[in-house]
Amino acid sequence: MFANLRGRTAHATGAGAFAVSAVALIAGCSNSSVLDLKVGDCIQLPNTETAVTIDRTSCSEEHRGEVSAVVKTNPNGADDAFPGASKLNSQAEEACVSSFTDYVGSNYVTSSLDVSWLVPTEQSWKDGDRHIACVVYAQGDQKLTQSVKDSNL
């Protein structure tokens, strides 16, 4: 589901989303778990709707996105029922768009960058995953070669 809020690609979740669902790490994978993403991590965007691992890279090397925020969703505890993908995507859209300017330094609407997110799946929710990872990325097939933090791009 690689789409964005500006409607350049074709997945509609509200206004649209690149919402890749996070699932629990499978033992033995050599990539980083999507559950371990931190603000400032530069990554290669997954090509699948559901990601278990994600490739991290140095921000000075070509990459497709950067984690701009990690937001706790549903802070009421691990026993809460899974709210559903639609509700998580709505929460993610609000959180990721609102945190965009603080991270990048420019307004989302006028920026040359876009934003998307990773949300828990029902299974990872059962395993205690309650985090949304916001990802700022280059539009189209463009690559980034530096951090977008305070870049005003």
Structure characterization notes:
This protein has 153 residues and is α+β, with helices and mostly antiparallel strands. The protein has one domain. Helix content is 16%, strand content 24%. It is built from 2 helices and 9 strands. The strands form 2 sheets. The chain has a 7-stranded mixed β-sheet. Strands 2-5 form a two-stranded antiparallel ribbon. The chain starts with 19 loop residues before the first strand and ends in a 15-residue tail after the last strand. The relative contact order is 0.24. Residues 1-30 have low confidence and may be disordered.
- What is the global morphology? globular
Beta strands, count: 9
What is the gyration radius calculated from CA atoms? 14 Å
Contiguous runs where pLDDT drops below 50 for at least 5 residues: 1-30
Helix content: 10-25%
Total of helices = 2
Mean pLDDT, rounded to whole units?
Answer: 77
Order of helices and strands: EEEEEEEHEHE
For the structure shown, list the relevant keywords.
153 residues, alpha+beta, seven-stranded mixed sheet, two-stranded antiparallel ribbon, 2 helices, 9 strands, 16% helix, disordered N terminus
